[in-house]
Amino acid sequence: DSTTVLIVGAGPAGLVLGNLLKAAGVDCLILERQSRAYVERRARAGFLAANTVRILEENGLAAGLLRDGRQHDTCLFRSEHAEFELKYSGLGRGEVHTVYPQQDLVRDLIAEFLDRGGELRFETAVAEVNDIGSDRPWIVCRNADGELQRWNGRYVAGCDGRHGVSRQAVPVGAVRQYRRDHGISWLALLAEAPQSMAAVAYAIHDEGFAGHMARSASVTRYYLQCARGEDPQGWSDRRIWDELQLRMQADRYGPLHQGPILERRVVDMASHVMDPIQYGRLFLVGDAASLISPSAAKGANLAVMEAEILAKALIADLRDDDERPLARYSEDCLPRIWRAQEFSHWMINLLHGPAGNDDEAVFLRALQRARLESLRNSRRHQDHFAENYVGI
Ligand code: APR
């Protein structure tokens, strides 16, 4: 069996790419390891940048988010010394976030891809990606019945996320791997409770960071900085709410709306960038190309940005016989990936100070306070913050 573009993974990257290729009449096949029900239920991100909404709108993929998405333009910083909020619709380029749970976007993108006649195989795991240095790459996948199938293609798009296989097909010496373990871990929580405030809230506290962000009318996302290797099951609902109330200074600013904790998992803050994010006929997109910490809600937005760039490049090559955009894919994406990485790194150091009372920790926490004060007092800094926080 063969197709023109083999897409590994049906997350935001693979589904946006597939929809754009299908709309341009390019033959493609998406292979997704999980079931449809699983990917449509998997709660991940939910803050869509303006560029992401533009791409989805321009390609007829935004019906759901325009109907149910909610504009968001305020973030609030709470420390033991002060609280202030930034309305970023009046800052930077005046862009705002659209809050729309990622699983809802994935659901919409799957439905649209199938409506466009796209071929999407669920419960089909790609085991190998071969001959990406030739003009006849091929993959081996295993379907739900355990049968092995071979698919030939002209191009392979590795949209298989943080734990994907496609990037392993790239010869080790052919790419630079940039990695950083930020040494910070978050207990990522989903609570069945309405949001406690109209803003995204970042609480900076000596006990550690706590975050609050809306997901839907009835579910709210919270984060609690925790020790590396922490067992999420060691956190009862009671202990979670007590710690959230403490770090968000509920006694001073009002109680949080509590409810059952639906999901708890530990996320280790790590960054990873490959350079280049292409090799021969393999092109990496989204988390498969670069991993970013959730501290600035960039992951899904980078995935959609790269998917648009790659779709346009593949269409230029396949329809207009112009190979230049494809050759330039990595250099078109990497500067924006690094800009997002830099901002995310700055956010990590704004929200977290190292524990301990040695000189280094005490000094770095003083820098953290100065960072927060600069953001609080300087309009120029707020413009720069807004441009990076919402932009891609
Ligand atoms: N074969 C087939 N599918 C695979 C394989 C494989 N070997 N390995 C992974 N997948 C699938 C996963 O099941 C997942 O559905 O690839 C998809 C990758 O999707 P994401 O992890 O969502 O990655 P991406 O599309 O790059 O989106 C990036 O979205 O997940 C959020 O915020 C998160 O930053 C992340 C962003």
TrEMBL record:
SUPFAM superfamilies, A to Z: FAD-linked reductases, C-terminal domain (SSF54373), FAD/NAD(P)-binding domain (SSF51905)
A GO term, aspect molecular function: FAD binding
FAD-binding domain ranges (all copies): 3-343
InterPro entries: FAD-bd, FAD/NAD-bd_sf, RIFMO-like
Domain of life: Bacteria
Classification via Pfam families: FAD_binding_3
Keyword annotations from UniProtKB, A to Z: FAD, Flavoprotein, Monooxygenase, Oxidoreductase
UniProt keyword Isomerase, yes or no: no
The name this protein goes by in its record: p-hydroxybenzoate 3-monooxygenase
Organism: Kitasatospora atroaurantiaca
